[in-house]
Amino acid sequence: MDSLALAVALPLLAALLATVWPARATLLGLLGALATAAAALMVITEVWEHGQLSTALGGWDIPLGIALAADGLSAALLAMTALVGLAISLYAAAYFDGRQAMHFWPLWLLLWTALNGLFLAGDLFNLYVTLELLGLSAVALGALGGDRAAVAASLRYLLVSLLGSISYLLGVVLLYTAHGSLDLARVAAALQPGPVAAAAMTLMIGGLTMKAALFPLHFWLPPAHASAPAPVSAALSALVVKAAVYLILRLWLDLFAPLVTTGAAMLLGGLGAAAVIWGSWRALHAERLKLLAAYSTVAQIGYLFLFPPLFQATPPGPGRDDLLAALVLMILTHGFAKSALFLAVGVIQKRSGHDRIAELGGTAQRLPATTFTLGLAGIALIGLPPSGSFTGKWLLLNGAFASGQWGWILVILTGTLMTAAYVFRVLSRAFNLEPTPPGFVTDARTELPALLLAAIAAIGLGLAAAPLWPLLGGGEDGT
Amino acid sequence: MTELLFGGAGILLFAMGLWSFLVHEPLLRKLIAFNVMGSGVFHILVAISERGALRPDPVPHALVLTGIVVAVSATALALALDRRLDDEDPDG
Amino acid sequence: MTLDTLLPAAIVFSSLVPGLLIFLVAEESHRLRILLNLSGALVKLLFVAIMIWGVYHDHNYESRLTLAPGLDLVLQADALSVLFVTLSTLLWLVTTVYAIGYLEQTPNRSRFFGFFSLCVSSTVGIALAGNLFTFLVFYEILTLTTYPLVAHRGTPESIRGARIYLIYTLSGGVLLLTGTVWLHALAGPVTFTQGGMLGAVPTEQHGTLIAIFVLLLGGLGVKAALVPLHGWLPESMVAPAPVSALLHAVAVVKAGAFGILRVVYDVYGIELADALGLLTLLGALASATILYGSLRALAQDGLKKRLAYSTVSQVSYIALGASILGPVATVGGVVHLVHQGIMKITLFFCAGNYAETLGIHRVSQMDGVGRRMPWTTLAFSVGALGMIGLPPIAGFVSKWYLGLGAVTAEAEWVLVVLGLSTLLNAGYFLPILYRAWFRPAPEAWPEEHIPPGRLETMGTLLWPPVITAGLCLIAGLLAEAPFSPLEWTELIARREYGL
């Protein structure tokens, strides 16, 4: 069976098995996670060798069958999902037990199925289905904590998510009405600027910005992400939000390319800039660590939307390819860093019973590996070298200088300093003289997955990002 | 002509549902509004399946069926979460 | 993969790897930690020795890693980088010995020594950086690795000092980043090139070049403690003595000063910088800093604070040297990079000894300390007299060449600055020496931690300042010997000016 189908089928199969055999859910879940990651690895190697992949499930061709396709962009996101997913799985195996484990594993594997399906879907309607599956499983996972705040936040998240996807669906229907096809490539080839296409674009991208929590539609994110259990928060912030961003990027660059105007790009950029400042400001004043991390996600999503105005101003060629690679690099770095951050916060929360920043001192001091994780994740969020987001930010600034768009530079630099302020507000609590920790690692099963993710974000992606360029089809001299 | 009628009605339903979704606070009304929006979209799909061709286009039908399944599951999940909230509410 | 492409990276890794391993060492394993520390320092010294020989014989060392198209991490060795690498490697070895004596009994040792090694790794990364991008990367990493050292004690004052340090250095980092990216967008990859690499930029862009220089100087000036960006330095005196020694003599302030040298000589080129009027700006800032730092030092009673303001003043001699056109002044400025380092580290070691042994933190408590701790006070005297510029100590050589260079370049105002500064140096150092040697000792010392034995204090605390004081004398006495700092600096000046 080919790797594209396996990447979607394996987590689905594991989810079903974990549902019918709940007593062994953790074991089945871990095996499923491993198998899914292996399938993702196969897809990535094949994309690496052939550039593009596609397959029709069960020999049923489009329009009725389900087509899967992969290119460099989807491979990159698939890779991030596999690594982050593996770390979250290892962590969750130690974090959840009993009933919670029984509920967590099927939903988590279903979420992973939806993510892989979304990254590999080649037509607009399958994208809708995976989007809904993703939203529903994310909401159910978010409510897993069971307390009132978590359920209320998840319900709000569900309503926003539904509104976003139905708006997307209406856009898809308009496109089908006009072009009689759902295949991304075919619609893209046939698309002509006009009122129908413009309405479809507004509906689809507008609906997705809700799911991506772009300012001012971010209101649902902080309570939902802050009240979920730590491994779930990690998945929501690192992966689920990114899936919406990925889809926006796909539509913006592939489907609606002839339609996008400088005005629309500037609008997205302006909202992104507002998100950077507002999210950082709220993170700076958050009293709880998880709320800080959630607002930081709002700000980091903002950075990603600073790219469209620069895409608009840069003619196709190496410069534009560099910008695209920088954007993907920032998406990946944030995914790794934010999941590491949430997992580390989970360790602290379990240890001390709370996550109030002002009272962290002793706990952070006692857990050097977790404090290290916070530090490395912080470096990646600020965008300091040698993190991947430093390279990304450098190319972003370079693009802004090259196209003379000075306003964004100011936003990026202000955001950097504000991020540094909220990161070090937490880190400075880790310096108490007493107690001296007995060793570097206290609980390997939860601390090490987080540390590994943070190291990938803060060091790995910075120093080893060069292969990303050929993967994304950019600059020839990218090796 | 029927096509236009159904399509127009669909868009109208969607808009009414959206308005209701945004304006009303109680969850049940929001959910009904969401389902009305869904029906609007399905209306349009049913309308376009018939245009011009000799036999109806099967794709919109498949889409509508899938869409209904998704909408029902979403509604069920929302109701389940709301039940949970009510159970925990001390004033219940 | 040959020695030539591996050596620069190996020099960075020789402290990076031990540093990372130290984090994993259990607190109680003193011996393992000491072994890792010292073996890293010695291996690095060996690598540096090979590099000195190679660069002297025009060998090219370069390690390169591509991060993105047009964005390379390059470590390479030229005469200037070798000078800075040697300084930091030698002083790291000495400071490690000192820090073991100073901190091996206190809590959180693994964290301290881990970051200590990472800090030196980033310093040698700065020294070996082959382009402005690489310099920026290591410059920012240096900020990150020194923060935990400044905050190490965990008291509210040290957290506050570390926060101020961070606010200054990260803001500076943002300025440097902006300037660097802008220059990159304007002129492509900014490789350090002897004689400058911006000659081809058309005249109508010269306004932009001036703006970029101001940004770069703003970023570098924070670490080099140029007035008015010096505020963090006295505040970060809350750090343990070996950290202060390292920050002031080797790592942080030197990174800033070294960056200024790189930008003036190897990015803009001294002729272009002169033509754009940038040297005047730099000279004015440096002179103001020299005088302001000395004036503030006069008024400090805290010994470390007085030394801190003295650093503010002395480091700007390097920038002053860079702001005067001509090879002689270049020699004076660049050689002060080394001379200030060995003199100031001696002074900080001694200040740490007074505090650790007798609990002396203030100048007013130093009466008669010379008889209780003669060797420490002797070392302190050598450092202090060198700072004033008394021959034959190293500081005299720097001042002599700076003065000579100013006369050659017909910039006589520099002599006024040097004269005033020397008077002020004497004004804040001689009273200390007078108190220490000639005033009677008090009945009891503030807090006598270490009773007098065969040595006046612990051996690991005593030997480092004695050795570095010896280096100050040797660098002055044997200034004309081959491979002395002065001789090496003359090699740098010859290559920069293409003589």
UniProtKB/TrEMBL annotation, chain A:
GO biological-process terms attached to the record: ATP synthesis coupled electron transport
Record membrane topology: Multi-pass membrane protein
Pfam families: Proton_antipo_M (PF00361)
Ranges in coiled-coil conformation: none
Localization in the cell: Cell membrane; Membrane
Keywords: Cell membrane, Lyase, Membrane, Transmembrane, Transmembrane helix
Keyword Cell membrane: yes
Transmembrane segments: 64-92, 104-121, 127-145, 157-176, 196-221, 228-249, 255-279, 291-311, 323-348, 369-386, 406-427, 448-469
UniProt record similarity statement: Belongs to the CPA3 antiporters (TC 2.A.63) subunit D family.
Name of this chain's protein: Hydrogenase-4 component B / Formate hydrogenlyase subunit 3
Organism of provenance: Imhoffiella purpurea
From TrEMBL, chain B:
Family statement drawn from the similarity comment of this UniProt entry: Belongs to the CPA3 antiporters (TC 2.A.63) subunit C family.
Keyword Transmembrane helix included in the entry's annotation: yes
Cell compartments where the protein resides: Cell membrane
InterPro entries in the cross-refs: CPA3_antiporter_subunitC (IPR050601), NUOK/Mnh_C1-like (IPR039428)
Top-level division of the source organism's lineage: Bacteria
Parts of the chain that traverse the membrane: 6-24, 31-49, 61-81
A Pfam cross-reference name: Oxidored_q2
Protein's UniProt keywords contain Phosphoprotein: no
Keyword terms of this UniProt record: Cell membrane, Membrane, Transmembrane, Transmembrane helix, Ubiquinone
Topology in membrane: Multi-pass membrane protein
Listed GO CC annotations: plasma membrane
Protein species of origin: Imhoffiella purpurea
Entry protein name: NADH-ubiquinone oxidoreductase, chain 4L
From TrEMBL, chain C:
Keywords linked to the UniProt accession: Cell membrane, Membrane, Transmembrane, Transmembrane helix, Ubiquinone
Subcellular location field: Cell membrane; Membrane
All residue ranges annotated as the NADH:quinone oxidoreductase/Mrp antiporter transmembrane domain in the record: 129-422
Residues annotated as transmembrane: 6-26, 35-56, 79-100, 112-139, 165-187, 208-233, 245-264, 276-295, 315-338, 375-393, 413-437
Matches recorded under Pfam families: Proton_antipo_M, Proton_antipo_N
Topology of this chain in the membrane: Multi-pass membrane protein
Keyword Ribosomal protein: no
GO cellular component annotations of the record: plasma membrane
Stretches assigned to the NADH-Ubiquinone oxidoreductase (complex I) chain 5 N-terminal domain: 72-113
Tagged with keyword Cell membrane: yes
Family classification: Belongs to the CPA3 antiporters (TC 2.A.63) subunit D family.
Protein name: NADH-ubiquinone oxidoreductase chain L
